[in-house]
Predict the 3D structure of the following.
Amino acid sequence: MKRFLIFIAAVSLFISCKKPPTVIADGSPEFSGTMTVLHEGENFPQDGIKVQVEFSPGNSTIDIMLKKVKFVPAMPVSIDVTILQVPVTQESDGSWSFAGHDMIPWAMGGPYDTYRVYDLHGTVSSSTLTFSLGFYNTKKQENYPTSYSGTLQK
C-alpha cells in the first residue's frame, strides 16, 4: 500500500494534464456529499466530496467525475477520478438509474486500469445522487467497496 501511495504522489506531480475524451462541462449538475470507502475492514468516510455528472447527447450514458478524493486515510494527495460512458436509463419518476461493470476509470491524466470499477449502480435525480461501486486493485487483487450520497449544489 505504501508503494501505491508514493506512486500516486509522484505521478500526480509529474504527469501531463490530458483530459478524458468526454469533458465534464461547467453546466453539468454538481453534487456535494459523503463518500465512504471500506479499507482494511474499516469505513473511511469523507464529507464534502463533490461529484459532477454529465449526460451524453441523447442521454444514453453519463460521465461521473469524483473531485479531490482520497481512497485511504494515508493517501498523500487527493485526485480526480472520472468514470466514463456509464449506461443510463430514465425511470418513470423522472430520475435516472445507471449501472456498469469492469470499467477503467480515468485518473491523473489518463486511463488508470490498476483500479478497475466494478458493480457500479446508482440513481441521479433533480436533487440527489447516490451510488455504490467497488474499486478492484488488479495488482494486489483487493476490493475497495465505495458508496456516495450527495445533494445538488445550487
The chain has one domain: 2-152. The mean pLDDT is 84. The CA atoms of residues 115 and 137 lie 5 Å apart.
